[in-house]
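#lab-general

N.A. 3:47 PM
ok so I finally got the sequence cleaned up, no stray characters, all 693 residues accounted for. can someone with queue access submit it? mine expired

B.Y. 3:52 PM
send it over

N.A. 3:53 PM
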Amino acid sequence: MKLFRVLQMSFAALAVCWTGLCNAAGYVFELPNSDPIRSSTRALGALKFSYDINPKMTSTCPAVVISQQHILVDYVCASIIENGDAFGRAVSATLHLGVEDYSIFTRPTPGIRSGVISVSEKKEHLFAVNVTAVVEKNEKHKFGILEVYGNPAATFGIIPVSSRPVRVGEELSLITGFGSPIHDCKADMASGSQPYRFSYHCDVAMKDASFIFAKDGSGLVGIHMTGDSESAATSQAIIEAPHTTYTRATFAAFKCKQPAALIERIVCSDDQLRELDSRMTTAYFARVKSIPTNSSQRGTVLQEQDAWLVSRTKQCRLPDDGKLTVEDSLRARHCLLNIYTSRIQTLYAAIDAPSPSVSCVNPNYLLARIVCGDSALKELNGKLNALHWRFVEGIRRGEDRFYPSFVTAHSSWVRSLRARCRVDLNRDSSFNDTSIDATLYARNCLVREYKDRIARLTANSSSGSIDRLDDRPAAITENTSYFAVVKAFGSSADAQTYLNQLMTKFPFQRFSLFPPHSMGQQWMIVLASYTDSNRATEIVDEARKNGMASDAYVWKIPASFNVPDNWVAQDIHRTILRCLVDGAQTIMQMYSCSGSVVTPGILLTCIKGGTCELNATSLGANETLRSQKLTWSSPLVVTRDSLDLKIVNDCLATHSKDERGFKACAVGALLKGNSASKCGDTSRSQKTLRTVS
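B.Y. 4:20 PM
back already:
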């Protein structure tokens, strides 16, 4: 008699089912740590997201962590994230991990036990998920890939996607969805007619997606998408299993918890190589996503990727015995840095650019008529198209960070505009036949959609640049040593003041501020950094033509390429916090130090990683300050609950009698990345720091 384990959607409850009986429930946390069910599902959780139309409405679907930056969900869940559903568009999503309890209730049907979803609300178990883009969506194999922030793999590990076919007769673990009743379960594996399919028998009434795991701990083998509670116990379900040759390279990033091969040990022991390995995997996702599902070119890309993976050892001359001298290790590291960078650029160079939003050259359909016939919408459309091509240029040059946040999301956004704004598809052939009310509704909706999309792209561009702004390459060479400089200043305050003026005048352009490189140099406001001579010259010429800077010029890192590790771009967030440490106490003092107009409210947002300035001149800021009952001499306040309390308490213990030392300690921790209050006990008394905002 075969044992079949059914793991509930809460990711904590375990039901042990013998043939004809499945009404006893246990708990995963009661199992020994060595049990495969417990040890192999820590990185399995619930993705919970909310909607724009009704923020109180939420949906939940299962998700597994498959890398430091990615989670895997079922195809339906990915489609809702990408295109929305009857409840609206997903505006925020959180991955809940670490559930240790489970609720059971009895439905009216006698003898059937059912579970309700249980999610963790502990802050250390919650991870934000990017809903602006789906990294990968595979209809054939019924899965989607989303980007997750905060590296949940560091705490909960990853769940590997099994690369082997399912064996006939092997026992599996099944995770059902959303409290579906479970009864009369038995597993009977059978090979399907296609290599990526297999079937099993279990009457579990599953209407939602469920993950299926190999009992031997080798990872995820399939996703259940159908079920029929009314059929006999031999009802069959088709599993689309992501273990085919197509997806093998998709999940090629190393599992650095137990690196075995020599190349794995080298990559996993080096921060830069680990990051490049993750970026290469993202680049592969991007390349595959750009190819139609039914195209044979996908197989060609897979073969190329597999060949590249195998060739790394040979290219970098790694020894067969796994032993390396110090010199060999350094040489291998340098080689791997180069071939990873080259592979990322090769993958992205092959991606075709998506189309811009709406073309007004020949507006012969209803959506284009509305957009191109309205001056405000036409202006917004032009701004969005300009942003579009800037991002596309960056993608073509290998800036992979922009693919997940732009290409997939932008294409989806364009495709779904008409549905979201109720532009009637049936009227496209006779676009004059529409009501005034419907047209005005569509117009107002489109204005909101365009502004939201531009804001999202602008926010994405502020975290990096299509022209390598702030993004120092692993190795600086002749082709990555040029900068396009708008203007240079002798002091950081003067440079920041001018930068704020540029940002106000050119809100859709990305700038960066670099400190003096060496003695005699100045603070530089740049449009592009770490690029080649031709590209830097093109950008400088463009800046002169559009009136941005008549005296823009190209600057080159000295031929020795000797760049100190601490020579990095000074973003506004860092500048504001540095001024805070240096003793700025009022709005005017902060403006004198940083060149930015910052209110107390904006300072708190800045500390948590958000907006750090009004983006206004000193004259333009007067009205804003008056409206908030503030003056230039108003003090700026940071409250204790704005910071991570553990950091604050540690700094207080070390600098109990040194106010400046305490601020330097606390803000220094923020500059290292602890930018937001994570948990902490806000019921304690607050310590107020009088500082500049």
